[in-house]
Design brief:
The protein has 426 residues and is α/β, with parallel strands linked by helices. The protein is built from eleven helices and 20 strands. The chain folds into two domains: 122 residues, Lyase, Ornithine Decarboxylase, Chain A, domain 1 (Beta Barrel), CATH 2.40.37.10; 259 residues, TIM Barrel, CATH 3.20.20. Helix 5 packs across helix 6. The protein is globular. The relative contact order is 0.16. It binds ligand LLP.
Length: 426
């Protein structure tokens, strides 16, 4: 093996010298393959199906183009994600608009642009959707978000379906959901399409999905008996990625087929009229395709630790600080050197919690060496910040030995571009 890490045939040191570091490098092939795998696996003879990529995991124009070309839909959760989709020319009828607190302006923008569905979080929002649709003279396609009360075994910040979750209406508030469905169904400006659930993120097993499908199918069955038919069941995202050794997510094809088979079993058993099943993977599409390259700066020994400092940190990857997330890494220019030192990889932010990897074995590193941190493709760039005025990193797609920069490194000037001294007329 060469001493230098290559990604899709492109040497890491050449990428770093061409585009600088920190640099998030995606294998474009891995992104395309994963989208295609979801698209081809999430099929069933008895259902219409749609794979909706959750753009919060990573979004830029080039990524949205890959999603579009793969024939997938797009999940957006804010006016910003919606505008980004519009700017990228993403087909709006394939967009679903999420969020627990969409503003009236955001709803209006979504309806004006003609989004495919609005996932309505609560009864007050339903009133807002109706008002906006009436004002614009359009019909909003509504899917109601139900919180199924399934607790997946994941970090508490990324559980979204426990009983006190801020998302959706609890499955135990049956009458509230039924009333929302009735209102949507009877409105001239809304069409009730179906029910949405999302049980959490970084879920390894299939069992929570099967449990959720069973639970929501019973609910849908009652809803159909008492109110109206349910055409669409959107099961959300949450499929795990492998960050460290020993993590083995189920193959996408197994997850997809088992979910769809269970949906079909429930449809038959309960006589449901559901015609279409959707899923919204984010992390599992992009996480493993991404690698962050950092340049090593100083190293430092303390009483009990040896630090390796890199030229980024929590500003480009807040997940270790926020969730205790774990990552693997390599010295990208010393791939064959013995891993002789136990080190802590820390960033350059003014914050003790700015750690990328708490403990790992690496070769002895010098200033200027390159560190590759793997599986950084999801919720890294999208949660990046300008903390300490560190510029946002550049992002490159590599494929067949070629690289293209898909997001430029943020220039310093960009950070004060919005600074102002304007008198405000009040
Ligand atoms: N659909 C809905 C309604 C969601 O809330 C989410 C994620 C997804 C789909 C996509 O889930 P995924 O397939 O990516 O797990 N920042 C956290 C993850 C937060 C996920 C929030 N919702 C992290 O870095 O782990």
């Amino acid at each position: 093996m060469d001493d230098i890490l290559t990604i899709e045939g492109v040497a890491a040191d050449r990428l770093a010298s061409a585009l600088g570091t920190p640099l998030i490098v995606y294998s474009e092939r891995a992104l395309e393959d994963r989208l295609c795998e979801f698209k081809s696996s999430f099929r069933h003879a008895e259902f219409d199906t749609q794979v909706i990529y959750a753009s919060k995991a990573f979004s830029c124009t080039a990524m949205l183009k890959l999603v579009e070309n793969a024939g997938c839909g797009l999940d957006v959760v804010s006016g910003g994600e919606l505008a980004a989709a519009d700017n990228a020319g993403f087909p709006m009828d394939r967009v679903v608009f999420h969020g627990n607190n969409k503003t009236p302006d955001e709803l209006r923008l979504a309806l004006k642009l003609g989004v495919g569905s609005i996932i309505v979080d609560n009864p007050i929002e339903l009133t807002e959707v109706e008002r906006a649709a009436a004002d614009l003279g359009v019909c909003a396609h509504v899917i109601i978000r139900v919180n199924p009360g399934i607790e997946a075994d994941t970090h508490k910040y990324i559980i979204t379906a426990n009983i006190d979750s801020k998302f959706g209406v609890s499955i135990y508030e049956r009458d509230t959901v039924f009333e929302m469905a009735r209102r949507a169904e009877n409105s001239r400006h809304m069409r009730f399409d179906g029910i949405h659930i999302h049980i959490g993120s970084q879920i390894f097993g299939i069992d929570p999905y099967i449990a959720a499908v069973r639970e929501i199918s019973e609910f849908v069955s009652e809803l159909e008996k008492e109110v109206c038919g349910v055409k669409v069941l959107d099961l959300g995202g949450g499929f795990a990625a492998a960050y460290v050794d020993g993590e083995t997510p189920l193959p996408v094809s197994d997850v997809c087929s088992q979910i769809l088979d269970e949906c079909y079993r429930q449809k038959k058993a309960l006589g449901l009229s559901v015609e279409k099943i959707m899923i919204e993977p984010g992390r599992s599409v992009v996480a493993e395709a991404g690698t962050t390259l950092y340049t090593v700066g100083y190293t430092k020994k303390t009483a009990n630790k040896k630090y390796v400092f890199v030229d980024g940190g929590m500003s480009d990857n807040i997940r270790p600080a926020l969730y205790g997330a774990k990552y693997r890494c390599d010295a990208a220019n010393k791939m064959n050197a013995p891993r002789s030192e136990k080190v802590c990889v820390a960033g350059k932010c003014c914050e003790s919690g700015d750690i990328i990897i708490e403990q790992t074995l690496l070769p002895k590193l010098e200033p200027g060496d390159l560190l590759a941190v793997y599986t950084t493709g999801a919720y890294g760039y999208s949660m990046a910040s300008n903390y300490n005025r560190l510029p946002l990193p550049a992002v490159a797609f590599v494929k067949d030995g070629k690289a293209r920069c898909v997001i430029k490194r943020q220039p310093y000037e960009d950070m004060w571009r919005l600074d102002a001294d304007l008198t405000v007329d009040i």
